[in-house]
Every structure is written in structure tokens, then in C-alpha cells.
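Sample log: Lipoprotein.
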Amino acid sequence: MRSLRLLPFALIVLSLLIAGCVQENNSVQNNYSVQGNNSAQETSISPSESQIKQFLEEKNVTSLANRTVGNSTVVLYENESEMGVYQISIDETGKMSWTQLSWANNSAFTPVSIGSRATGVPFVAVIINNDQMLKKAYKVTVVFRNKDEVTELVNNSKGIIIPDENVRNGNVGWSSVTVFDKDNNVLFKKD
């Protein structure tokens, strides 16, 4: 009987672990919710630190990580109910535009949560949920479907954003995410 009660949670976790393309609109695909007030244009620029701070205050979220990706800033966040990223840019008139990709907070069910965006400059957002793993984690390597391999150091940061800067306007998902310790031992791998 207990296993039947856990079945919905297992299905949610399984669906969150399946990578898929997320389009920039107000639909829900693969349990990801995508929202936005506009899509970033090629002439857009990344917002300033003060603009990012004000945006996060308005949205009432705390950043786990932020990084310039292409002509925007990606902010990775987590709260009790959800995890996600905001992709924020400023157009040529000074107007801020943003999209949000969010998913249910699955930190109780998986040691590592993964979100991604395949379009534009693709990126993978990684949240290391397991405190013991975070203490041991040294680097995260993402292999994108175009065979590009990108590695970022963890530096005791729970959230890491890993873009494929070799792609400027493509549709490239990821094929694997691996967390390593200092001795190059695999702590976590998702294909």
C-alpha cells in the first residue's frame, strides 16, 4: 500500500529527469513551466547587477547562481515549492524582458536536479541537493548532443549554470551530466 502512495512522486521524479526541449511560450511541457513577458532579441544585452537584484526582489526569489549566457543573464533559483531559471535581458529601448523555466522542487527525491534550455545559447542548470555530495563535488561536466563537452568547477556552490558558448542560435540539448570529485571519481551521472 505504501508503494502505491509513492507512485505519483516516482512518476513526477521520472518525468523531471527526462530531458526535453522547452519552447519559449506559456505552455507546460515535460513538467516544465515556461513563462515570460517577451523573448530576448539579438540586440538585447545582459542586465546590470542592480537590475538583477531588483528583479529578484520583485520575484521574491534568492539566486543560487547567475551567469551571462549569450545576450542575457541566467539566474538559477530554488524555493520550497519549485526550482528554475530566469533568463533576463534588456532590449535597445531599455525594457527588461524575461522568460522563466520552472519545475517542482524535487530535492527530496534526487541528489542532483537538472534543468536546461536547448535553444539560442543552450545551457544546463545543475542543483546539487545532497549536502554530502556537495562537500565532495569538484566539477560538473555536461556533454551536449552536438558532442561539445563543457566542464565547470563547483567551488562549493549548490547551483551551477553551464552554457555551450560554441552555439549561438541552435537547438542543442544535453546528453549527459556528470558530477566528479577531486580524484575524478563519478559522484553522479545522468544520461
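Observation: The two ends are 31 Å apart (CA to CA).
Observation: Residues 114 and 126 are 5 Å apart (CA to CA).
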